Amino acid sequence: MSSVWFGADRAPTDYLGDSADGCKQRGRTTHTVALDQLSQGVAELATLAAADFDPHDVLHRLCEVAAQALEVDGAGVMRADGGTTTYVHASSGGVKDLEMLQEVLQEGPCRDALDSGRMIIAGTIQDMAWPAFQRMATTVDLHAVLAVPLLSRGRAWGTLDLYWNSPHHITDDDIAAAQLLANVAVSFLVMSSDRAQLQAAHNDLRHRALHDQLTGLANRELMHQHIDHALAAARRNDTLIAVLFVDLDDFKSINDTFGHRAGDHVLATAAQRLQSCIREMDIAGRLAGDEFLILCENITPLATAIHSMQTLAHRIHQSLDQPLEVQGVELRLRASIGASLTNGSTTVEALIHHADTAMYRAKTAGPGGTAIRLLDH
């Protein structure tokens, strides 16, 4: 990686040798980082591989390891967020002040390192090319800085910023040690990003597998899982649960008259209206076609349970009855609703079956009806 030097009257190659012999030939003072400290620092970063880490964990650990393992007086880490830099962690108050200043101004060595993809080096206060940063560095008594961009896959993930509290000739050893830690850290940043993307893809696939693609509601499989858990909770807590089976009346004629695309719009609208009628803890799902289920948990007391379900059914009827325009025609939806309540001493299949049976009983009485069955009593 190339470097940008500030305040140098010679090219960077005059400062940086390709070998230890080259350094000796130039009479340079070698600033050696103890190998055992550096090895320990790399090992500490490597422990992240066995942990459930995120990018913030990696950057936080990088800062701490750099401050301990490298011959520096302070370390800070910034994260790249789109086109901005954001403060993550610092080893001291003075370093934090400088890092926070760069976040506010979006100017300084870390900003330049991110923009250029190159190390930014300033060995003295006078070498610092950023006026506000220079003034703050003087105030907090930090006189030299090395900003190392964390690069991988064609992008900058952040910067490792090293500070000294006196003018410092930044050597090959300083740069090599900092680059080693940066390389290890960025490998974990990439790993964390890949893992997050895989997890997001997995979550998306799972969501698709358990939700109806048209309405976004829980599908049959997920509703069965929720009802099974609710039955167990009802038995433990001596409460009631209810399942409402909602079937849109005369939906086939809407499909036949306006087409399936319009029918899908009606189903999606009906799903939204059902969702708006239930409590946050309740769950709405779509079984198939124009059939929906609603699961209500923790219904107490028994004396008012049936009335509570009647009230909910009435609210659903009112919501569905709101005007809905389809291809310039105003429609009003009707639904037949059947509900079954239990204290948990039944099965998922039986509870849904009883709600379905109650729904058909309501449908025989005419559109927009409700029938409720209380089981186990």
From TrEMBL:
Coiled coil: none annotated. InterPro entries: DGC-Regulatory_Protein (IPR052163), GAF (IPR003018), GAF-like_dom_sf (IPR029016), GGDEF_dom (IPR000160), Nucleotide_cyclase (IPR029787), Rev_trsase/Diguanyl_cyclase (IPR043128). PROSITE patterns: GGDEF. CDD domains: GGDEF. SUPFAM superfamilies: GAF domain-like (SSF55781), Nucleotide cyclase (SSF55073). Residues 239-377 form the GGDEF domain. It comes from the Bacteria. This is Diguanylate cyclase. It comes from Nakamurella alba. The lineage of its organism: Bacteria, Bacillati, Actinomycetota, Actinomycetes, Nakamurellales.
